[in-house]
Design brief:
The two termini are 65 Å apart. This protein has 674 residues and is an alpha+beta fold. A hairpin with a 3-residue loop joins β6 and β7. The strands form 2 sheets. A 5-stranded mixed beta sheet has the order 2-4-5-7-6. A two-stranded antiparallel ribbon has the order 1-3. It contains 24 helices and 7 strands.
Length: 674
Amino acid sequence: MMKYYILSLSLLVAACEARNPDNTAYFDPIFRQADSLERGGDGKAVAWLDSVFNNYPEAGPLDRYRRYDFLARHAGYTQHNYALASQYDDSMLEVSRPYADNPLFQNTYGLALLGKGQTLLSLGAYDEAFKYFFEGRNRYAGSCFLSSQYNEALGTIYYNQHKFPSAIRYYGAALSDLRGCASRTPYEQFTGIQGLLDNIGLAYGAMNANDSALYYFNHTLAYADSAAAVFTDPDQQQYIREVHALVNGNISTIFDQQGNYVAEEKAIRSSMMPRGNLFDNGVLSLADISLHHLGRPDEARALLDQARRSLNTEVHETGDELMWRRLDWQYWDTTGHTAEAYRAYRSYIGLRDSLRATQQNLSRIDVNREFDDLRRQQQLTELRENNVLQRDYLLIAIGFSTMAVIILALIWWNWRRSRRDVRVIGLHNKHLELTLDSLEQRNREYDYLFKMVAHDLRNPIAGISGITELLAESEGITSEERQMLALIRHSCSQVLGLIHDLLESKSNPETRRLTMQWCDMSDLLEECVSLLQVKAEEKRQQIKLAKTRSYPVLADRNKMWRVLNNLLTNAIKFSPEKSVIRVAATPRDNTLLISVTDTGIGIPEDMREKIFDAFGAGRSGTQGERSFGLGLSICRQIVEAHGGSIWFESETGRGTTFYVTLPMPVIVEEEVPA
């Protein structure tokens, strides 16, 4: 499948570029000749193309783009030199970037992004590869052609991960995009559609859904037969013959699964045809059924020797070499040659294990999660920009608070001076009244500004909550995405509640009372850990929550959320990069003991006595994060209001563990009568 996929994409690239500006009329036959030489396998295509460009200095940027595209395909597909292919991909990106937003020529940049991503996948640079896929897919979401190309690429990734239902879904989406794409020529649509039909058949075959697989394979053959009457150019006719051969080879795998080995042999022989310097693995398939199902070991040996000679000289996939080594070992084992079988088996196992390690690295990748992470990074960047204005408001509030403190200092200073001069008491009293009036005015202004800042903080957060609610109600999102949206919405609700409590506490102290309710502390711990995982990942840290059962506690859920959030935030702030933060909850003597342990810088001896004092222990984190020393004071007040206690154990340079105990209900389990 991968051989055809690259061939199909290359033809689409060439067809796309045929409509680009510069010197297309001159270079179209040049690139057709280069493709013909490449298929011939004599190794002259690159040298011939280089000589043409060296003698044609008028070549424009998009002419060079086509050249780099050819060289990238030659380096990656023919030579398996993906590092060199990546360099040519970079050149394609450089020359096509000026056309990225031009509706007429944007396909050049979109396909360059796609090619770069696929080369990086071959190099194992998966994180970097998905950045290119994410940029291309977002930038050209409205282009039917580019959308089909990216959906096909994602379908191929899922196919290689053996996630075949997802592969079928993306191949189907690519097929729908391409069928409705009026900008493609009939031949371009044919090459793309037949490849997608064949790929869907391969995915169904891998799922052992043989009837569906055969339906798509036969549909592909019928589609190619109808195209043969329309596209009469010799190169087009050769391509259609290659399609027939490729699909017949795929059909043979279905006959193999059904045990119809005679039909399988016939299909394999129909799939074999000269391919220049490209290895035809049909000879290996014939050796396989001859050895295992047709009882012809001598014929199998001859086919294996023939394949070995071809593998030594022709371009082939690593999977072809692996299949040859497996059949070589099985032949010697079947014919009773123990020494040769052992040697061949060791050769086969060495290559197989190497390929498995590579496949496992790819299988670990969750494509949707990669795109979600990149999307969240983009959203966080936008949120940081919005927070700049809110930070300015906060600085203004701090400035007014400083002014209020200065005014109070002036009042005190004037009051002391008034005692030294009784004769001016009346004047000083008048001055004091004026100053007090000014202070009250300042306080009113400060109160107004404080509420304005809170209002401006609340509106964006409420907006985020509303957007996530709309997204959660939309169709077409996964359960994992819905869970993440619920977490964001709940976090917004928590922050809005804190802002509300803060505003209400200025005018009505009664609102500071706890709102007690039964809550599961295990759920609350999981929620806090999930929320702060993103912040921990900024310092490449891990937060590990020990498995716990349900622990019901009578508490104010919002305020206990503040306590856990403060403790985890401090652990992240004062721990180095790549460290592990451990969170646990265990019952002990009718109380629930919660612990948050880090391996950070610890608490110095001179700060331990005032660690729970308001503003008593402010210091910077391991990366210069600011701290005002207020969070632990709030934590102690909340915990003690619940009838619990909070303390810590710390060793400078080794880390700190904070402990919180909360009363738990005594549950009496009644014995059930027999």
